[in-house]
Amino acid sequence: MLDRLTSTMQSRGSPCADSTGIRPWNGGCSDMHLPVIRRKGLSVRFIETFDPQSYADTAISLTAAFLLATLIGAERQYRQRTAGLRTNVLVSIGAATFVDLAMRIEGSEGAVRVIAYVVSGIGFLGAGVIMKEGMNVRGLNTAATLWCSAAVGSCAGADMVAEAALLTLFVMIGNTLLRPLANAINRTPFNEMASEAHYEVRVICPSAEIPQTRDLLAEFLEDHKYSAASIDERKGPNDTGELVAQLVSTAVNPQEMDQMMEELLTRSGVLHAGWEVSTRD
């Protein structure tokens, strides 16, 4: 527009134009008025680009993510978990917002990339609620629930509200109805012969006899067809040492192991011998 105006002034030979053909701003030719070019403000741009239909779609997505995550978070809050009501809701609506924003700007391809980032980002958030206390690991279910809340939000942000509701239903079933079943399984006696686990043989001996006892333990296990993947040495009290042999086998006969420990106690230099089982991964 400015180029057309300049060329017009030059063609008319306007006395108000300088050598470049542009009218000076400091006076003269009051009968001519050039339009003032202003940059559009944020409010003007918002009014021009505002789409009520898209806004309603976003509102539905965020509302669905909020309500569905509230159901998941309420159950977590009731059980006093680390990630409770507010955390699950914030994760869900945040994921929904990012996915909805990507779909409005770049379409489905952009949404796919954002969903991939959401999945990896929730992994870091979930790692923060996992804690190890001795042999026990806490927070795995909480981290998995946060991951599912992000999935619920992503579905809602992608306008898949029905799928988000279905996922919420499955998450609620997993955290509530499956709990009695998990408790019943945990109360079932552990069968060493039918279950895979990690087995350790522990031997206590005088510190001065650790090398000889280590060789003795390795040969003893080999003779009984239980090879050791590793044998670690640890310091014990009163000038004693402990040898911990990690067995290669993932299933043993408990009666046979008890007899082996009794036999091992009869060997020279062995002060104590025992074995234990662990189901940790």
Automatic annotation (TrEMBL):
The keyword Cell membrane applies. Residues 1-13 have a biased composition (Polar residues). It holds the Pfam family MgtC_SapB_C. Keywords: Cell inner membrane, Cell membrane, Membrane, Transmembrane, Transmembrane helix. The chain crosses the membrane at residues 111-131. It is a multi-pass membrane protein. One of its GO terms (cellular component) is plasma membrane. Residues 62-183 form the MgtC/SapB/SrpB/YhiD N-terminal domain. It is found in: Cell inner membrane; Cell membrane. Virulence factor required for growth in low Mg(2+) medium and for intramacrophage survival. May be involved in regulating membrane potential by activating Na(+)/K(+)-ATPase. Belongs to the MgtC/SapB family. This is Protein MgtC. It comes from Granulibacter bethesdensis (strain ATCC BAA-1260 / CGDNIH1).
